[in-house]
């Protein structure tokens, strides 16, 4: 089967084989280890160091292993930093950015700095530098938008020393990160990093010192920072598998090389669409197209249903668009192989030749 699911998404075949051989040992599997044991701590801290090396995370950032997915971060972030007298700016670029903004608005003063909603989220707002309102605690971005298929290719420059927060759930590890433009990045692991259950938070240490203290300890970034993400039982097995994914990514040449491969995979699909005379119509405008999630429509809903049915017959899975917008979606995360993309390309070309007018 060829897995194009949007998340939980494909894992590399090599990682699944290592899980089978190593992670499910009959005597003592990783799922059975105490999170206080030396054996598990080697996995825990080893995975952190692998992430730091692959993403070139500076030493003045900490890497936290949390739970609750990115959705918990929608609330945890303002609980820690949207203190009385402060406000937070949000850039709305799709469904998940909207959810982050809505959650923060329940907890404090917020404003929409920019939005692509009027254009049906077909493009990323053109922000090269940004001028925040007075007393802004942070600016929040969603770097890739799985529902609408758009992606930031360059983060805005902050000229006012106001922190920038990036939800990288669907494109972390797919390309290098310029850490001079990001103060917090967070991501659910289940698209590019590992299985569901783990949330990775990469946060600048000096900003941690400004975090609110009068909140539940379990929701405080400082709590998890001080306890090395071992304040309570972490998602141990998800962390273990994430470490295996990091090993695989390193064996592929690292983030820089996987980025070039991802660009080729996406280019292969978009080129076919652009040459299809609008039979395959991408939702996103060219300069905002996501390399991770290609969202598109066909000339009719009947053709879309036929496309999805025939794709399933060819073992091409997970191509249905998000329920809120319909259409079709191709997710091209790191573990989706070039061979899978070629199989998809061949199917799409044959379907085009048979059904286009």
How are the elements arranged and paired?
Elements: E1 2-3, H1 13-23, H2 38-55, E2 61-66, H3 69-81, E3 87-92, H4 95-105, E4 109-115, E5 129-130, E6 136-142, E7 144-145, E8 150-151, E9 157-158, E10 164-167, E11 184-188, E12 199-204, H5 205-208, H6 221-226, H7 236-251, H8 254-274, E13 281-282, E14 293-297, H9 301-313, E15 316-317, E16 328-331, H10 338-355
Parallel strand pairs: 1-15, 3-4, 3-6, 5-9, 6-10, 10-11
Antiparallel strand pairs: 2-12, 7-8, 11-12, 13-14, 14-16
Helix pairs in contact: 1-7, 2-7, 3-4, 8-10
Shape from CA axes?
Answer: globular
CATH-level-2 architecture of the largest domain? 3-Layer(aba) Sandwich
Instruction: Write down the overall mean pLDDT.
Output: 95
Strand fraction equals 15-25%
Individual helix count = 10
If you had to describe this structure to a student in words, what would you say it looks like?
With 357 residues, the chain is of the alpha/beta class. The strands form 5 sheets. Strands 2-12-11-10-6-3-4 form a 7-stranded mixed beta sheet, with helices on both faces. Strands 13-14-16 form a 3-stranded antiparallel beta sheet. A two-stranded parallel sheet has the order 1-15. α2 crosses α7. The radius of gyration is 21 Å and the shape is globular.
